[in-house]
Design a protein that fits this description.
2 helices; extended; OB fold (Dihydrolipoamide Acetyltransferase, E2P); alpha+beta; five-stranded mixed barrel
């Protein structure tokens, strides 16, 4: 029984060594991000312009530069009111996942308000 377990472990180790994973540099974006199916609740949008002191960002729906232009509302935790001061940062061309509630488009991800801290090292 111990021999069977050791043999199984040896075969698993050999299989793991034979498996070659693609490096992150060779993975295509379209393969790394699964696109939402047409008609599904979740869709992809691409940031049109880097957002400023607002919680709404203008995006292209489904395809970058050619998709329908939509306004996407974003939620910022910890009382934040500005996407330019939130994390993760959004810049033009960034893909985001969005959903429509019947009247407004919303970003699926929440953002965290950046808080500057001053640390005193004793």
């Amino acid at each position: 029984m111990l021999q069977d377990a050791l043999d199984l472990q040896r075969r698993a180790d050999q299989a793991a060594r034979r498996e070659r994973l693609a490096s992150p540099e060779t993975i295509q974006w379209s393969r790394a991000v699964r696109h939402a199916a047409p008609g599904s609740a979740l869709r992809h949008a691409f940031v049109k312009t880097t957002p400023g002191a607002t919680t709404v960002v203008t995006c292209y729906l489904d395809t970058d530069l050619t998709g329908e232009e939509i306004s996407v509302k974003c939620k910022i935790c910890s009382g934040g009111e500005s996407l330019e001061d939130a994390y993760p940062t959004l810049v033009a061309g960034d893909p985001i996942t969005v959903w429509h509630d019947g009247s407004d488009w919303w970003c699926f991800s929440n953002f965290q308000n950046n808080v500057e801290c001053s640390c005193v090292i004793a």
